[in-house]
Amino acid sequence: MTATTTSPASTSTSNPAALVRPDGGPCRVLVVDDEASLSELLSMALRYEGCEVRSAGDGAGAVRAARSFRPDVVVLDVMLPDMDGLAVLGRLRREIPQVPVLFLTARDSVEDRIAGLTAGGDDYVTKPFSLEEVVARLRGLVRRSGAAQAARGGSVLAVGDLRLDEDSHEVVRAGRDIHLTATEFELLRYLMRNPRRVLSKAQILDRVWSYDFGGQANVVELYVSYLRRKLESGPGLPRLIHTRRGAGYLIKPAE
């Protein structure tokens, strides 16, 4: 067994707020794992949290389920019988570009974690894990993606020629659409809500990831590099995100 045997009831009491969609309906979670007992345990715990759950035992089944089920968040095992989980992630994102993905992995090396995040995963849990941890991570992903938040009035943030629409999650720079993952979007939103203010790695981890990321503060550096690549790689585009060595990061309009 690769998860602790904590009962769903104890999971629920530690996280009393239900996972819901903006319309008040249950959050849809797709669980992808070829270990049937683990998949059923996760599904049971998530249903107890008020989620609507669909499961798949391989990559092809995951893509088919995503196409019909349209999940709000995906729990995806890295090692599947028919294809690598990173390849499955690419296919899922073609179906639902913004869907947050939580990787389950038995490999806990820094290289494997970076590979998953680089491929577009939003978070990961290393086996063996507790059900409480998975539910907490999913709660953070759903919150960050906006899937569990009530609809709010439109709000557009602007820094120089960069525009971020908090309602539609659209990001545009110099007339060009920028496609971000849920975590990249939340990081950029946090920076843009604090223009010209230096934000430390600890502040960013607390606000964007909402938990202690196992001391892996370098995940902030990794995601800042992703944003720079997407926002500043075009011809003639000056830098917006700046590093203050030993202090943190800030965003400001080009001079």
TrEMBL record:
DNA-binding region of this protein: 154-253
Record domain OmpR/PhoB-type: where: 154-253
Coiled coil start-end: none
Residues with PTM 4-aspartylphosphate: 77
UniProt KW keywords: DNA-binding, Phosphoprotein
Domain Response regulatory residue range list: 28-142
Name of the protein this chain belongs to: Response regulator transcription factor
Highest classification ranks of the organism: Bacteria, Bacillati, Actinomycetota, Actinomycetes, Kitasatosporales
